[in-house]
User: What shape does this take?
Amino acid sequence: MTSTLGADAEPARPAAPAAPRAALPIGGGETTVLRQPVVHPDRSVYGYAVRVQVSGPTGAPLPDEAAEPAVETAYRRLDLTGLAGDKPVLLRATAGLLAGTTAVWYDAERLMLEITPALARRSDIDTLVEAAAGRGLRLALADYDGSLPQERLLGRVSVVKIDLRRAPDHCAELVARAHAGGATVVAEHADTAAYVELGQQLDADLLQGPMFHRDPTPVRRTFSAGEVQCLELLRVLSEEPVSQQDVVRTVASDPELSMRVLHLVNSSAFGLRREIDSVLQAVVLVGPRQLHALAIASLIDARPTSVASLWSILTRAQTCHTLAGNDAGYTVGLLSAVAAQQGIDLTELVSRTGVSEQLSGALLRHEGPLGHVLAAVLAHEENDTDAVQATGLEPWDVAHAYLAAVPSALGTATALAFGD
Assistant: This one.
């Protein structure tokens, strides 16, 4: 990994930080790292947008200028590869990042710096832009609203981000201006089906928002035999206590599940010295949580091209598990994500998997501690800090759990999708 920015970087560094930190107490407040996928209209992932939100002692967000020192401190500690895999990162810029006096560890070819409206108004912005461009960095305009300072930079950026919460006519005008300037348009806040549709109607090139929306249009459909087996495995795994005999029987009765569990246990992720060819042994070694993930991978027919979707599903599940402190949290996160990803009616999925009343209430109505955890994670995926707080959970805790889950979920998703 190379350092693309920063005159203050050491001559050599053996490795980037092992894991991202979600928040750092700063001056009585705290910083929260937010990450969202940027996707093509077909929902394939282009890259990930990363930014830091800094609150003051009262909890209110600090202005960009006041927040810069805390933002740059957080950036120095982030493992962007762990957050984005091999995809591009759209990172909210600071003056230090543009000038090269603050370092961030990432591949320059996959890094794009977003110029905020506050940065665009700086008197030295031309110098900062020239410094960044001189180091080969690509630039974007964040929160484009057509103001004069942003217009002056329009021909010098490759991407323009537009907030879909603006009036539709205004959005259409901004998209037309950006396209006329030769920029790729990212429609931000594509967090509902209506906003996704609006972004597509406006001919936005990319959409930014949570991977899965709260309000997908559910479909009632007939499940294939393989899908029924995956749902049956989830049902068996949700029982208390879990019957290992039933788990083995369910896995062994389906060739696809058997193949996946054997591929997983023999993958480099497990690092076993000898190959396992017994389904019984594989089930014992893999364990319940990985079997949950395997069932979901089979249900969504995970392949290398669908790693991003599986990654997001497992990240939500792991985050819910961490915040809830039990395996029920993992199940709630997993089922909510797969229902959204597949567009399956959640009531039908709950019925098929036969989960407990507690899990059913959490999934369908966000009831109880598990429901509050799920609601908080959904709000975090939407970058809605106020909604996280409304659940009774601390945004710092949710952000920290989420970002800690991202790298481990990627490892599991890759092993399941590639089977190597």
Q: What stands out?
A: The first strand starts at residue 3 and ends at 5. The radius of gyration is 22 Å. Confidence is low (pLDDT under 50) at residues 1-28.
